[in-house]
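stuck on whats below:

***
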Amino acid sequence: MKIERLGNDKIRIFLTFDDLSERGIQKEDMWHEIPKVHDLFTEMMDQAYSEVGFDATGPLAVEVFALPAQGMVVIVTRGKYDHHHHGGPSPYEDEMSEEVYEMEVTLEQSDTILYSFDDFEILIEAAHVLQHMLADAGRLYKYNRKWVLHLEPEELEEGKQAAIIAVLAEFGEATSVTPAMLEEYGDVIMADNAIGVICSHFKRQD
């Protein structure tokens, strides 16, 4: 579990699939009201307080993004939710009423694949390995001093997603950044066909 402060009233939490499985939670469970999911939210808020001083008392807006290769991105914003103006209470509120949290939970699923690379030379290596599977795919960003490769599901050949993710995981690291954050805060280096462009302009190291 990785926690990052985005502002005075906002944090981002990155949960890997290992984080979920260690707690007996499947990705699909995040869409259901079950005690272990509530326990996970409580644990996240406790850790957020101890690590970055985020006080989760009062109303919270919680956005959960499921990413296919990376895990879950949870964005928590404090003070943005008032159920009196949202047509009724959150489905999570009743079970959590004994605690300090009131949550308005939004769940979204994305098939976008995002991997970051510390070194451009490593990205070149990965691109050459991927070239036969992803000749005309990829959008490349520079974000937080890292190179981030963005792949959409329609760019992937059917049945090859697992192999592509295995290569990406070997050379890069799953990132918790969302496509919207890349568009807003990142720099677009290659708008499309990043794999092909990299391979045509940069050779692998001997």
